[in-house]
């Protein structure tokens, strides 16, 4: 039951991101798309630790985080307690936007 619920939450979060987000331009070489953070979805929606792939994507997407925080549709995910735990576990400083 819990696994089905967490899969449903993950699917809902992915659907919301797909529907509400356009690519956000930043520094050359980085494509800001929240879908790039898919490897972090499980860690951000549960208490599971982030994978190495998640931490690598967070480092890659770090220049995009302020743009995600400014987006009302994404802010709640990027600024959630679990997301902060993930960035802390990956040793990525929370940006001051």
UniProtKB/TrEMBL annotation:
Taxonomic source organism: Camelina sativa (False flax)
Signal peptide: 1-29
SMART domains: AAI (SM00499)
Keywords, comma-separated and alphabetical: Lipid-binding, Signal, Transport
Residue span(s) of domain Bifunctional inhibitor/plant lipid transfer protein/seed storage helical: 32-97
Protein name, entry field: Non-specific lipid-transfer protein 2-like
């Amino acid at each position: 039951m819990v696994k089905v619920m967490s899969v449903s939450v993950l699917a809902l979060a992915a659907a919301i991101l797909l529907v509400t987000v356009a690519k956000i331009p930043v520094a050359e070489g980085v494509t800001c798309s929240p879908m790039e953070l898919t490897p972090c979805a499980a860690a951000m929606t549960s208490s599971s630790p982030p994978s190495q792939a998640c931490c690598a994507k967070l480092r890659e997407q770090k220049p995009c985080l302020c743009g995600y925080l400014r987006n009302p549709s994404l802010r709640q995910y990027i600024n959630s307690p679990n997301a902060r735990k993930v960035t802390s576990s990956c040793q990525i400083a929370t940006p001051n936007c």
